[in-house]
Amino acid sequence: MNRRTTLARTTLVAFIALSAGPALAGCSSSAGGEPALKVSGAFMPQPVDDMAAGFLRVENSGGTADRLTSVTSDISDDVTIHETKNQKMQRVKSFDVPADGELDLERGGNHIMFMKLKQKPEQGQKVAVELHFEKSDPITVELPVKESTYNPKKH
Ligand SMILES: [Cu+2]
Fold first, then answer.
1. In this structure, are residues 32 and 95 in contact, taking their beta carbons and an 8 Å threshold?
2. Cα 116 to middle of ligand 1, angstroms
3. For 20-45, what is the mean pLDDT?
4. Are 55 and 105 in contact (CB under 8 A)?
5. I need a labelling partner for 132 at 20 to 30 A (CA). Which of 13, 75, 91, 147 fits?
6. Residue 90 C-alpha to ligand 1 middle, in angstroms?
7. CATH no. for residue 139?
8. Which protein residues have their CB within 5 A of the ion that is ligand 1?
């Protein structure tokens, strides 16, 4: 693909992204509409080694399901999504974000896994991640770094 084609495609994508917002506003409650995602409760327990986990909740108020497919971050080139089964964690390809439901990444369960940290974030700092979805545009979230045992469910 030559440079002009790339440029044209980029412009087209930008145009679609810009025009999609207002045109679809107000459709979120109708069945079969777009997913409408909102992230809350994000945090990262302070890493004890060169690995870290991330937790958050993705709420979907739209009538269509979506999927969390990957996560990227500047602090690691090796970020994956894990589920925990029988106290063992394993990598998964994606997580469901059900229509009019939510995806919970919480301690002891599903989580974001950061390996080979390039720098070790300290408590009080924030780690930016980008969440990638099957349908929705990527969402950038800042994870405040908490003490290593932090668990909002126990507060
Ligand atoms: Cu893990």
1. no
2. 13
3. 72
4. yes
5. 147
6. 6
7. 2.60.40.1890
8. 82, 89, 113
The CA distance from 155 to 106, in Å, is 14
| pLDDT for 107 beyond 60 | yes
Distance 10 CA to ligand 1 centre (A): 35
8 within a domain of the structure (yes/no): no
Q: Token pair of 86, please?
A: 């029988």
Q: How far is the CA of 79 from the centre of ligand 1 (A)?
A: 10
pLDDT in tens, 38-86: 999 999 999 989 999 999 999 999 999 999 999 999 999 999 999 999 9
Total count of domains within the chain: 1
List, in order, residues 6 or more apart from 48 with CB less than 8 Å away: 148
CA of residue 112 to ligand 1 center, whole Å: 7
